[in-house]
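Handout for the seminar on molecular recognition.
Each group receives one record of this type.
Step one: identify the two inputs.
Step two: read the structure output and locate the region that could contact iron/sulfur cluster.
Step three: write two sentences on what you found, then compare them with the reference statements printed after the record.
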Amino acid sequence: MLRKNYNNDPERKIKPSFCSLGVTDKCMLKCKICYKWQDTGSEKSPTLMQYKNFISNLRGFLDEGFKIQFGAGEVLLFDGLLDLVKFSSAQGFSTLIASNGWLIDEEMAKRIAGSGLNEITLSLDSLNAQTHDYLRGVTGAHCRVMAAIDYLKKNSPDIKIGINSIICDYNLGDLMPLLEWIVNNDKINSIFLLAITQPNNIEVEKEWWKGKNSCLWPKDTRKVCSFVEHLLKFKSTGAGGKIGNSFAQLEAFKFYFMHPERFVSKTNCNLGGMVHVNAFGDISFLCPKSGVLGNIKKKEDIKKIWFSGKANHTREKIAVCRGNCHFLINCFFGNE
Ligand code: SF4
Ligand code: SF4
């Protein structure tokens, strides 16, 4: 059963709940959780005009204030990204970019301020520079992201800054000090914790947590569960208000770390409600296995694509999938 039944929705009112534009897969960091940086092939990206046409088309379908997320690789490497942010804001969308902070110096922070960006999430895995740089694969990554926070707040006092931090074996002992620092830091609005999963951009490996890519998986899962217990207690106090993860998600983290072989979600996969455009302009659901529905270079109407027979059929398949791909434990956990 679908959570919301698109096929029995004659008025076609059920719209996407999330939209991400993955404008580039390129990145200057070499994170241990993501192998996007190994892909050095050339991207046949849509032009700025094609992106703008898509965003305008989207505006005809979605309500004012809907949030567009710009993400994938390091988005600020995409020439014209801030032009797209400005254009999206002018169309009435709320805008968010996910960045590693490497390119945000004073000059970039001024340009970001000029774009009207509402929100930015930055990756920060520890207050310890060595730990962060080890996980991000490049010396100096910590120094740059810490400077980025200051530059952003100085130039855009109203911007919301969120921190994304991985929970893994390597930084487990650093996470409580990081959390306390964030709670007491007026420049930062929130922290979102991400359970370690199989690195991005590699073939799905069965029982990856036991295989060659498992080095960051916690050796002692009881320790990680005890940390999550602390988080749950901390979140229930006033001081824990900056923790973006829901109580249900934190509970799911404990289950996930104890039983990675079991399906992570108590309900159906919700990615059939989320639309994604990759760096080639392909439109799809967020599930990496769901196939392409269209391409923004072809100027197809997103509403027609969204309610097409192919999209409905794919959504049905997504809703009953028990793939246990671990994709669902983090950003797309939903409200269970
Ligand atoms: S996780 Fe983000 S910062 Fe790290 S390599 Fe991937 S895209 Fe770059
Ligand atoms: S593989 Fe299945 S569970 Fe994973 S995101 Fe796709 S549809 Fe959802």
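Reference statements: The chain has one domain: 18-320. The chain has ten helices and nine strands.
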